[in-house]
């Protein structure tokens, strides 16, 4: 699993970018940028950022089932 996938899994588990960033000793912006690059590479959004708590998109759920 590459770093971006580890970060995405951590966000999936904690439902929080800030908690995941703290856990990985990186800034929230660095973690967010890494995940955005992964989403660009995949061609879809993994997380629905408009909801609190954070949730997976339909495509994100499918990815989670494959990877996690």
- Give the strand order of the largest sheet, numbering strands 1, 2, ... along the chain: 1-2
Radius of gyration: 11 Å
Main β-sheet: number of strands, strand sense, barrel status?
Answer: 2 strands, antiparallel
Number of helices: 4
Structure summary, number of beta strands: 2
Q: Would you identify the regions where 5 or more consecutive residues have pLDDT less than 50?
A: none
What portion of the residues fall into strands of 2 or more residues?
5-15%
Mean pLDDT: 92
The level of helicity is 55-70%
One letter per element, helices H and strands E, the order comes to HHHEEH
- Secondary-structure-based class equals mainly alpha
Distance between the termini: 10 Å
**Morphology:** globular
Structural description of this entry:
This protein has four helices and two strands; from the N terminus they run H-H-H-E-E-H. With 68 residues, it is mainly alpha-helical. Strands 1-2 form a two-stranded antiparallel sheet. Strand 1 and strand 2 form a beta hairpin. Helix 1 crosses helix 2 (17-23). It starts with a helix and ends with a helix.
């Amino acid at each position: 699993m590459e770093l971006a996938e580890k970060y995405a899994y951590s966000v999936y588990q904690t439902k929080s970018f800030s908690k995941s960033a703290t856990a990985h000793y990186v800034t929230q912006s660095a973690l967010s940028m890494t995940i955005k690059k992964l989403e660009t590479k995949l061609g879809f959004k993994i997380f629905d950022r408009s909801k609190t708590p954070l949730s997976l998109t339909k495509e994100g759920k499918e990815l989670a089932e494959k990877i996690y």
